[in-house]
Design goal:
With 461 residues, the protein is α/β, with parallel strands linked by helices. It has four helices and 35 strands. The N terminus is likely disordered.
Length: 461
């Protein structure tokens, strides 16, 4: 890309020279007589032409200054040393800077000061480390393109003055240790297939789009919009309250807590989201498709909706017993692998499923159950797995709760337990009628057999 900038600058200068010749010299050839009129025109045109031509030359020069430059490290480790760059000048505002195999060894570069650039390209088998100062993605493409096999470590501060893309296709590792800052609610997009580690926090108000890669976050995620559509992502980090988390792809694990009032939306065709930490009160969680696995406590006042095509998996440690916490089944699946899990309120809006996953140790305790739809309990191994609060519930167990399609019932020995309904015993009249029907059918079959035997004997004679 930097070669294109040089060419652009050269064309600018060339155009300016041709323009000057055309506008100043060509209208007045040496054979044309010079009179008072031509002298007057020359006096008027020449200063204007020189000024405009000077502007064109300045534009051409600017294009050249803003061109790409390659680090060769031939003098020392300082970014500010002209001799370390090819061409030999310190990259200016809006420059594209390239780091490749030219130095022939691992490099630690002292950034020093604030470097406002457009694009950083790192493609090398050697390790690069940036230390000190700040790298500001200030204008233009605002991209960090990292490839090759060497590691890239950024200890310098990184500032995003606008939406910025980090594209990582390297087989090495990109590590960010310096402070990450943004202006104007900038959005950082992570793409590619490589490994990226954030040991710095994501600032409040910033947006984060994750499209690919193997990404690990080891520091806080402040409030903002997090959109994940791909990649393998691990957040060993706390999400501050008010975060909006949209999952449309990839596999994501959150091992720390999520602050109260957060929005969590899961809508994936493959992959899913696993939250091992606790979720603060007042959170809104919507599982439209794909799976959300919970193994922590959900605070009071949370609302969890499971749509058709979505699955909420409750693992060991999951707890939704907080006051006012509601789980609504809109045709989705509530799966249970926890030995014991509590849900304050369950609402049946559309016919749905509870999957006990063939785990005899799993059981679920609902506080209150309401709604007009049905729920079918499948893959159960015991009749001691489903409990509820009958005094606070408004459902009819025998018509709304089923076990593998058969109606359920309240356990006569424990009014808080729901069990499969007893197999009905036929009435005596039904049994007698069945026996008579079998006798009639048997007699009819015997008579038919005898007729066929008689006919066969007659034919034989």
């Amino acid at each position: 890309m930097h070669a294109g900038h040089w060419i652009l600058g050269g064309f600018g200068i060339k155009f300016c020279c041709k323009w000057l010749i055309y506008r100043v010299i060509s209208p007045y050839s040496p054979t044309q007589p010079v009179n008072s009129t031509t002298q007057s025109v020359l006096r008027l045109r020449l200063p204007v032409s020189i000024r405009l031509g000077g502007l064109c030359l300045a534009i051409g020069a600017f294009c050249t200054v803003a061109s790409g430059q390659t680090w060769d490290g031939s003098s020392n480790s300082n970014w500010s040393t002209s001799a370390n760059w090819t061409p030999a000048s310190v990259p200016g505002y809006g420059a594209t800077v390239d780091f490749d195999d030219t130095p022939g060894s691992n490099q630690t570069i002292n950034v020093g000061g604030t470097r406002q650039i457009a694009e950083v390209n790192v493609n090398s088998q050697y390790d690069y480390t940036f230390s000190g100062g700040n790298i500001v993605f200030a204008t233009g493409t605002r991209e960090l393109n990292y490839s090759g096999s060497g590691d890239l470590t950024i200890d310098s501060g990184v500032k995003l003055n606008g939406d910025t893309i980090f594209s990582n296709t390297s087989t090495g590792q990109l590590t960010l240790n310096g402070t990450l800052g943004t202006w104007s609610n900038s959005i950082l997009t992570l793409s590619g297939t490589g490994a990226t580690v954030f040991n710095t926090s994501v600032p409040g108000g910033a947006g984060l789009n994750i499209e690919g890669g193997a990404n690990t976050f080891n520091n806080n995620i402040n409030s903002g919009d997090i959109n994940i559509s791909g990649g393998t992502n691990t957040f060993n980090a706390q999400f501050n309250g008010g975060t909006t988390l949209n999952i449309t792809g990839g596999n994501t694990i959150i091992t720390d807590n999520i602050g109260g009032g957060s929005e969590i939306n899961v809508n994936v065709t493959s992959g899913g989201l696993s939250i091992e930490g606790n979720i603060g009160g007042g959170a809104n969680i919507d599982v439209e498709s794909g799976q959300l696995a919970l193994s922590g406590t959900v605070g009071s006042g949370a609302a969890v909706v499971i749509e058709s095509g979505g699955t909420l998996l409750l693992e060991d440690g999951a707890d939704l017993s907080g006051g006012g916490s509601d789980v609504t089944l809109n045709g989705g699946t509530l799966a249970v692998s926890a030995d014991e899990v509590f849900i304050a309120n369950l609402t049946l809006n559309e016919d749905s499923t509870i999957d006990m996953l063939n785990d005899a140790d799993a059981d679920i305790d609902f506080g209150n159950i309401s709604g007009s739809a049905t729920v079918n309990i499948v893959n159960y191994n015991s009749t001691d797995q489903v409990y509820f609060n009958p005094s606070g519930s408004s459902i009819n167990v025998s018509t709304q709760v089923f076990f593998d399609g058969a109606p359920g019932m309240i356990d006569p020995e424990d009014p808080n337990r729901i069990i499969p309904g007893a197999t009905p015993v036929p009435e005596p009249e039904t049994v007698i009628a069945g026996i008579l029907l079998l006798l009639v059918l048997g007699g009819h079959g015997w008579r038919r057999y005898r007729r066929q035997a008689v006919l066969a004997a007659a034919v034989a004679v």
